[in-house]
Amino acid sequence: MHLPPFFEIGSFEFGKHTVLILLSVALIAGFFLWAIRKQALVPSKGQYLGEIGYGFVRNSLGRDIIGEKEFRPWIPLLFTFFFFILVNNLFGSIPVLQLPTFSHPGSAYVLAGVAYVAWVFIGIKRHGFAHFMGKMTMPPDVPKVLYVFLIPIEFISNLIIRPVTHALRVFATMFAGHMAIMVAAGLLGYLVSEVGGLGILGGAGALFLGIFIFFLEILIQVLQAYIFTLLFAVYVDGALQEGH
Amino acid sequence: MDITGSLSVIGFGLAAIGGGIGVGLIFAAYMQAVSRQPETQRIIQPMLFMGFAVVEALAILGFVLALIF
Amino acid sequence: MTTHIMAASENPLIPNGWEMLITAIGFSILLFVAVKWIVPMFERTYAERTDAIEGGLAKAEAAQAEADRARDEYNQQLESARLEAQKIREEARAEGEKILADFKDRANVESARITENAHTAIAAERSAAVASLRNEVGSLAIQLSSKVVGESLSDDERSRRVVDRFLADLEQNPTDAGAQR
Where is the site labelled Reversibly protonated during proton transport (chain B) (predicted)? Predict the structure, then answer.
């Protein structure tokens, strides 16, 4: 399933995955630096495009969820999350590249880990360790007896399941989407070459299935990048908020 | 023709039903709420995704278990 | 078929350490670029644009204020001009009245003077008339009565006495008061 690595240094395999990560960094940084190079008040087309992308992350993910007062320091992180995941996911739908980087679990773990550390850190910094733990594990307005059950459940749900699902959501959808296209392609090849005859009709069906899955994948790739960043913003907002 | 594969994948399929229904309900309720009172959208939206994440966690756990066993 | 797609025999959930490292490095580079350049540049552009728009608004507001001020000033000038005109009119009217009163006064004085003169003249003429009348009436009466009583009254001394008595009678008699005027 994987291409062989281009070259190896010890146990480090310099493969397609590595190339794509570096390519995505170069693409994103290059595009946005190019778009904003003039900092014109009346944007050119390129700058306008960059501003749409940046403004989307800034306003609908940052300002609307984290809130007018607190969102500014979080813009770089939100921006990096969103576009890093978006571009790497879209690599899965670009012919030749054809590998969503996050279908390799390591990448997803790293990003979710960064997000987890960031929001737990800011929560503890803002509220102190004990208060933050109380906030995370003790929902307010609940009869005291219920805390016996609620504290473990909330602890597991908020501090363990959250980062795990955060990572696995993007990984699983990318992995499964990648796999689904491969299954459709494999089915097409199998029906046409091995069955033949009437199987070629079935192959046409498999082709349509593959094309359908391909476009569905594009939708899911964009959506997953959005959801990952949005959930990060929601977690940060929850950690920053006063009250429960 | 032999059918090979992992039984746990069927289990994941079953587990995904619950998550699918739950996520569908959450978004249906969200749309109703927002169409009734559009000005509450910004308050509801974070809660929507919080609940969505929690519900979908079950389906994702099913996926993990399907791959582990 | 299945085996050939799921060629990855190892569990797909187990990450490759090098992949994690390279992802972390890529992410850090991108985050660094975002913190250092992309976000500040975009934010600066946003801020400048906001400034420009708000600056334009402020300029328009200043122009509006200027216009308001000019209009106020104009109105004020108009008002003061109107007051001025009213004052001038008022003064003119007062002046006119004063002049009128002055003339009236002067006319009164004049008429009083003329009346006075007339009175004086009338009195003088009257006294002259009285004097001449007395002489003539006396001599006429003497002549008449001398013709009536004869030569006895030709004596001057006596005749004057008679005339005097007669005139005194005339003056004392209230019924003859009308003839005196």
Answer: 56
Ranges under pLDDT 50 in chain A? 1
Kindly list the partner chains of chain B, i.e. chains with 3 or more CB atom pairs below 8 Å. A, C
Alpha helices in C8-38 (DSSP H): 17-33
Task: Give the whole-angstrom CA distance, residue A208 versus residue A201.
Answer: 11
Q: Which of B46, B56, B64 sits opposite A234 (nearest CB)?
A: B46
How many separate domains does chain C show?
A: 1
A62 to chain B: closest CA residue:
B46
B12 dihedral zone (left: phi>0; alpha: psi -120 to 50; beta) = alpha
Structure confidence by residue, pLDDT tens digits, A166-219: 999 999 889 888 888 888 888 888 888 877 778 888 888 888 988 999 999 999
Q: How far is CA A190 from CA A175, A224, B5, in A?
A: 22, 31, 18
Letter for the amino acid at A19? Answer: V
pTM of the model: 0.71
Q: Which two structure tokens, joined as six digits, stand for B50?
A: 């919080």
Residues across chain C: 181
Torsion over CA: A85, A91, A92, A97 (sign): negative
Facing residue for B53 by CB, picked from A64, A65, A231: A231
Strand partners of residue A8: A13
Q: Does residue B64 fall inside a structural domain?
A: yes
One-letter amino acid for residue A158 of the chain: N
Instruction: Give a yes or no: residue A142 inside a domain.
Output: yes
Residue whose entry in the numeric block shows the structure tokens 């580079």: C29
List the subunits that have 3+ CB pairs under 8 angstroms with A. B, C
Where in the sequence is the domain holding C33, given as residue range(s)? 18-174
